[in-house]
Structure formats: structure tokens, C-alpha cells
Amino acid sequence: MAAQDETRRRPRRGPASRAPEPVGAVIPFGKKNYIIFALAAAVIVAGYLALSRGSITLAPILLLTGYLVLIPWGILAK
After folding, report:
1. H or E element, residue 60
2. CA distance 29 to 35
3. Could you give the count of Cα atoms lying within 13 Å of 6 in the half-sphere of its Cβ?
4. What percent of the chain is helix, strand and coil (3-state, nearest 5)?
5. 53 to 12, 29, 48: CA distances (angstroms)
6. What is the pLDDT of residues 16-68, one digit of tens each?
7. 73: burial class by Cβ within 10 Å (0-12, 13-18, 19+)?
8. How many angstroms separate the first and last alpha carbons of the chain?
9. In the predicted model, what is the mean pLDDT of residues 5-25?
10. Which helix (H) or strand (E) holds 41?
11. Closest Cα partner for 63 from 76, 52, 48?
């Protein structure tokens, strides 16, 4: 019976049981990335401010530019 209990135990969790991270999986963000993220945040805030004032042309342009152009660019820029 003791042998069955040993086989049912869960593997030990902790730093020693973690698999090594793949070499290419790290995405280092540099100064350029954070500047682009800050620009994206400013454009998105400007888009929401324009939306709150009733703009139906400028607000969507700013929001789409911030979310679909600047944030991905900030993630992918090297």
C-alpha cells in the first residue's frame, strides 16, 4: 500500500522543477519601446477625450491608430 501512495504523489513544484526557458522566448523592451508605448497611451487618451466631446471622425482614427498601430509597433520594435 505504501508503494501505491508514492506513485500517486504529485511532482514537486518549485524553482528546481521548472523547465529551462527557450532562448528566443525573451522579449526585451528597451527605451525605444517604452517611448512608443507612452506615445500610444497619449494617442489613446486623446482619442477618448475626443470621443467624450462628440467627435465621430477624429476619435476613431486616434483610437485605431493607438490600439492597432502604435501598441503592436511598441511590442515589435527592436
Report:
1. helix 58-64
2. 10
3. 3
4. 70, 0, 30
5. 56, 35, 9
6. 667 666 666 676 899 999 999 999 999 999 999 999 999 999 999 999 999 99
7. middle
8. 58
9. 63
10. helix 31-52
11. 48
How many Å separate Cα 28 from the centre of its chain? 12
Closest C-alpha to 40, from 73, 78, 68, 70: 70
Q: How far apart are CA 50 and CA 57, in angstroms?
A: 9
Residue 54 cell numbers, joined: 462628440
Report the candidate in 16, 48, 36, 21 with the shortest Cα–Cα distance to residue 77: 36
Higher pLDDT among residues 13 and 61, named by residue? 61
Q: What residue type is assigned to position 17 of the chain?
A: S
